Amino acid sequence: MQNITGRIQQFIENSPGFTYQVILSVVVIIAIWLIRFIAIRIINRKLPETKIQYKWRKNLTYISVFLGFLIVGRIWFEGLQSVATFLGLLSAGLAIALKDPVSDFAAWLFILWRKPFDVGDRIQIGDVKGDVIDQRLFKFTVLEIGNWVHADQSTGRVVHVPNHYAFSKSLANYTSNFKFLWNEIEVLVTFESNWEKAKELLQQISDKHLEDSVERAEQQVQQAKKSYLIYYRYLTPIVYTDVRDSGVCLTIRHLSDPRQRRGLSQAIWEDVLRSFNEHDDIELAYPTMRIYKEPNQ
């Protein structure tokens, strides 16, 4: 042990420049970490909103890492003429050796700049659907929905997605700009039912449940038109008529908040069942088979 300690001491005495660089690097890292820690404590006290705190924490982390990388790099590479030369050589080496991480970093910059999604948005990218709960330098994290769970509700699984998927996979955002989805509920009644009365009842039920949603959707459409060419002729719920093998299909097409789709469908279905139960001339249809037997001759 004394031999190892002696060698280390001898190395330090023989390499004062190296020792100075190590100590200075450690001091810089600790100083940046302390500044970040103090800033986060102040932000947590001044800003009570969790989402804003999260964004400040992430931004301070990115700034701290960048400054630390820049300052420590200058300490160890004083022989280079400029920081630009150092960064250029480093980025060229990384681009060759680390293709996927470099792609992830480029996609991270794209996500920050163009904002195809943000923390809190509900998205589908490739086969992954869920709510974005975290964004980092090389990946973002999604709280999964769907899969074996119906109606876009949470499965409880946390899925980590590489940032470069933003370049290579199709991306659908459920909640950006226009925070509504079009949903459809199919109600099948028998051919013998009074389908016109059933259609009128469905229209009344959907109008009752969706009055507030239509007003909010109209405001959001006007806002979304500033960024996209979005045009809807009607935002009110509509009941369409179609014919299936088992009966007349009445489809309620309506707007829904992506996170309330299941609850809204349940409320509409419960009112439909209660309403149809009060009318003897309306019956729900289901697949049946009728057999006609010819009498013996």
Automatic annotation (TrEMBL):
It comes from the Bacteria. The lineage of its organism: Bacteria, Pseudomonadati, Balneolota, Balneolia, Balneolales. Residues 100-175 form the Mechanosensitive ion channel MscS domain. It holds the Pfam family MS_channel_2nd. The keyword Nucleotide-binding does not apply. The chain crosses the membrane at residues 20-39, 60-77. GO terms for cellular component: plasma membrane. It is a multi-pass membrane protein. It comes from Fodinibius halophilus. InterPro entries: LSM_dom_sf, MscS_beta-dom_sf, MscS_channel_2nd, MscS_channel_C_sf. One of its GO terms (molecular function) is mechanosensitive monoatomic ion channel activity. This is Mechanosensitive ion channel family protein. It is found in: Cell membrane. Keywords: Cell membrane, Membrane, Transmembrane, Transmembrane helix. The keyword Glycoprotein does not apply. Its main location: membrane.
